Amino acid sequence: MTIDKVKAFEALRQAFTTVPLSLMPDFPLPLKLYIDASGEGLGAALHKVQILNDKPVEGSICFISRQIKPTESRYGASQMECLCLFWALEKLNYFLEGCVFGVITDCTAVKSLLHMKTPNRHMLRWQIAMQAYRGNMTIVHKDENIH
């Protein structure tokens, strides 16, 4: 192995051993749901902020992912991100129901999904399913990839 590979491995080992990998949810505290979709699959990560040594540390509760189905491969980027949110809410319902949480996404269309006046049939179904979370969910756009 080269010196660069050894350094990279040691950096990964350090990161994995110093940051809490998996935390138990503390339901009175707000949670963070990170979502992202690509042409290959959907992914989500549920996090919480915990105070360790008088410093806020964000740690993970769980990660989920799946490949997209052949019919979903025809969706546009915005529709794919909305599908990702719907799917993540469905899969993580047992963590999120009744909790205050923020959804962090890189797609501006996800924020407008809840307020669409004339959604297509997929988005209408997703919109109806998300009504259960409306009072507890805030959608935050991160400015990394705008689509």
Describe, in short, the structure shown.
This protein has five helices and five strands, in the order αβββααβααβ.
User: Strand arrangement, largest sheet?
Assistant: 3-2-1-4-5
Strand content: 25-35%
- The helix content is 25-40%
Number of domains: 1
What is the alpha-carbon Rg in Å?
A: 17 Å
Write down the overall geometry. globular
Give the distance, in angstroms, between the N- and C-terminal Cα atoms. 40 Å
Do you know the CATH architecture? 2-Layer Sandwich
Low-confidence stretches: none
Helix and strand succession?
HEEEHHEHHE
Q: How many runs of DSSP E, i.e. beta strands?
A: 5
CATH topology: Nucleotidyltransferase, domain 5
What structural category arises from helix and sheet content?
Answer: alpha/beta
Give me the CATH superfamily.
Ribonuclease H-like superfamily/Ribonuclease H
Biggest sheet features: 5 strands, mixed
Question: How would you describe the overall organization of this protein?
Answer:
The protein is an alpha/beta fold. The protein has a single domain, classed as Ribonuclease H-like superfamily/Ribonuclease H (Nucleotidyltransferase, domain 5, 2-Layer Sandwich). It is 35% helix and 29% strand. The protein has five helices and five strands, in the order αβββααβααβ. Strands 3-2-1-4-5 form a five-stranded mixed β-sheet. β2 and β3 form a beta hairpin. α2 packs parallel to α5. The longest helix has 16 residues. The chain starts with a helix and ends in a 6-residue tail after the last strand.
